[in-house]
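Hi support team,

I've been running sequence recovery on a batch of backbones for a student project. Most finish fine, but this one hangs at about 90% for roughly twenty minutes before it completes. I'm not sure whether the input is malformed or the queue is just slow. I've pasted the structure tokens below so you can try to reproduce it. Let me know if you need the job ID as well.

Thanks,
M.K.
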């Protein structure tokens, strides 16, 4: 069994990787916002979000993991929608 220091080091490394991926995801969300604004599309696409939740939950190996993944991606998509709204608001201010 690994000791607590080793486990915490691994968690720290995983957190750095997750942070990097989350920031990349938000950068793509900004591009999505620009596309949606240019094509007069709404921020929320409920059907797309439902499909994402289904497919990401399916990556879990058991019901507990599936629920955890569903919660994680629910949060990520909420943050992405917030970022998209911010980007669209800023773009609207520039054109006003």
């Amino acid at each position: 069994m690994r000791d607590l220091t080793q486990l915490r080091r691994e968690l720290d490394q995983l957190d750095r990787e997750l942070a990097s991926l989350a920031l990349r995801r938000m950068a793509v969300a900004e591009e999505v916002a620009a596309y949606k604004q240019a094509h007069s599309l709404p921020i929320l696409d409920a059907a797309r979000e439902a499909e994402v939740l289904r497919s990401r939950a399916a990556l879990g190996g058991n019901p507990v993991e599936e629920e955890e993944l569903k919660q994680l991606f629910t949060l990520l998509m909420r943050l992405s929608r917030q970022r998209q709204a911010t980007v669209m608001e800023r773009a609207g201010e520039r054109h006003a």
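--
Follow-up from support: It reproduced on our side and the slowdown came from queue contention, not your input. The chain has a mean pLDDT of 96. No action needed from you.
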